[in-house]
Amino acid sequence: MMQLYTGNKNYSSWSMRAWLILKHFDLPFQDHFVAFDDFSADGQFKQQLSKLSPAGKVPVLLHDQLAVWDTLAIAEYLAEQFPEKHLWPQDRLQRARARTVAAEMHSGFMQLRSLCPMNIEADLSAVGQQLWQQHAGLRQDVQRVEQIWSEAEGFLFGDFSIADAFYAPVVMRLMSYRLPVTELSQQYMQKIQHLPAVRQWMDAAKREHLFVQADEPYRTSS
Ligand SMILES: N[C@@H](CCC(=O)N[C@@H](CS)C(=O)NCC(=O)O)C(=O)O
């Protein structure tokens, strides 16, 4: 059975992507939790991860003596292992487009990702309002996300695919920071939120109650 190592469900956007793919497509796996800390070299997170992956980050997938890390590589590995599940769209052109937008998320949207770290349980709407006014780069990132979503055919490419999993944490961010988006984007966001696997992840994130200061630029524990 495949073993997936993931971080805190409230904070770990990359873990969420890999987990959603496995869960939504009903692939056999066991989930192992590695709690976030301040990611210092001698902290428990890096100590545990060092036994699994030289990159020292989650998610990591272990299968048949093989460790696969980095979410895009995990996604491609799963797509190859389970071709009958159609993790990518079946149409060649759609598949190329889906890979393109997933890669764009993997390597881009830096302002959105750094200014609005995922925090599913938090209401950061006041912070979001300020960030929106102050950061043109954030507005540009969200505009680009909305452009991608505006071409959605239900999910981005018909049925739910790896591409949607890559944008699910963006839905979480837009909700927590309540950034202003169009009606069309809200429809896509609703669709993602209602997916059983997404619901399950969100519920677990809200039940987690593990406050990690290093992941909280806008809140203090008290
Ligand atoms: N490019 C990696 C990024 C993984 C990543 O940054 N994971 C975060 C958690 S969401 C992490 O493990 N951070 C620990 C660190 O930065 O030391 C991927 O796609 O999986």
From TrEMBL:
Which Gene3D superfamilies does the UniProt entry name for this protein?
1.20.1050.10, Glutaredoxin
Q: Which domain of life is it from?
A: Bacteria
Tell me the protein's name: Glutathione S-transferase family protein
Domain (GST N-terminal): give its ranges. 2-86
